[in-house]
Amino acid sequence: MSEAKAHGNGLTPPAPPDAFDLHLDQLNDDLVQLEEHGTKAECAHAIEGLEALASYIRYRQACLSHQVEKDFVRDHEERGVHMDDQTRGAAACVALARKQSPHGMRNYLVNCRILFEDTPHLAAACSRGEFTEAQAQAILTPLQDLRAQRRTEFDQYFAQNPDMFESMGTRQITQTVRKFVLSYTSDQESIKQKTVEEDRNLTLEIDQQRGCIKIRGEYPLLPGMCLKRYLDEESKTLRKKGDPRTRTQIRADLLFSYMMIGEPSKMPVALNIGVIMTDRSLFAGEREPALLEGYGYIPAQSVREWIGGHQIPNDLTFEQMEAKVTRENIEQIEVRTELARFYTAPGDQELISMDSKTRLFPEKLKKFIAVRDRHCRTPFCDGIVEEIDHVKQYARGGKTTVSNGDGRCAACNKAKQAAGWYEYTTYGNGHSITICPGSAMSYKSTAPPATGYAHKPFPQLMRDGTWPQKLKERLRPPDDPECVAA
């Protein structure tokens, strides 16, 4: 109980309007009725409606929070105080009203400012309950690194592609926005990554309460991702062989064994990471970010430095770079580059398909689907692709093709086996599937574009390489000899 309420200082909150009470009571009665007598479909529909209502309420909270901040700024200007920090006190006031810690509330208010001053189309979508508060924050936080003009440019792009975040989890949303941000801040991000080499560290902290040692450290991106990829793959392999330990336990044991035993007997150790980028970014110096598998988007310049074997100073010309190349530029980690080409359909950003005649997905087809999907295809799931499976089950006539395959995390791939759950591919921009989880509700999942930030609409016939044969089959008369023979 707050101190004001405990002492009864006469601060009585204003009573809500009678009409609001009536609507609230009616909503409560409807929900009680659903809890007692509602079907599975009705309950799921009510949950979705309540989520939209909660999102709308959070939007209104953001409106009021932004107004509180403006009132604090106006008050400080009139008094002539705190001119170096005009928003002082606003974050604490909003945090107390929301019964939250004030730490991090300044960042929330900055996002509110961006939402209402720089991104009106995004604000309109939030007012309709299209984004939860977490999703809205995932969009707005990366935009803090851009100037107002660039944020408005992104908002215009969103207005032209309102479905660009459809069915995405917060991590996927952040990566999509970050890809846009890196197009303008790649130099600063590249400089930031270079400082990590000097700031690398490892600490061992004693936790007497739990009786353990906590290991914390910071490593540069390239060796750090190699280490993570190796531990993940080894732990997964041992689990498949029947190791009773969990994957986290296996990773901890592997790291400890290498630290204590020393260098492995077989040298050199080959550690692989996957980077996806356009040929224009790799060879022509374009700024479109590269996708580091398992991490997210990084500046294309960082990848060019890994392949080139030495850093490219951001503030030097090409002639100055050549003059400064010395033995100190030779990296301790040797990068051996293997290029794999993925082709997109003419005029768009979609990867051309691959097929197989077997039930199991071949390794190259698995890799192709994993590159295309990047994340678990279950809507709003940010899990990594661990398993490749059929959209329409093979037992029900589904084919082993790239269009009938999708990537899932292990948990979601098990969930789709539930009774009444079915999925099917749909026509649209990009590889799209419709998921029906057995509750009369349906959700759409679309693979991210290979390049760019959103799918470009264009005729289906231009994308589907098998359309001539399908068209001939549709136009073939029923009494055609080929049709009868089939």
From TrEMBL:
Residues in coiled coil: none
SMART domains: HNHc (SM00507)
Pfam annotation, one family: DUF222
Region called Disordered, residue ranges: 464-486
Bias (Basic and acidic residues) ranges: 470-479
InterPro entries reported for this sequence: DUF222, HNH_nuc
Domain HNH nuclease: 364-414
Name of this chain's protein: Uncharacterized protein DUF222
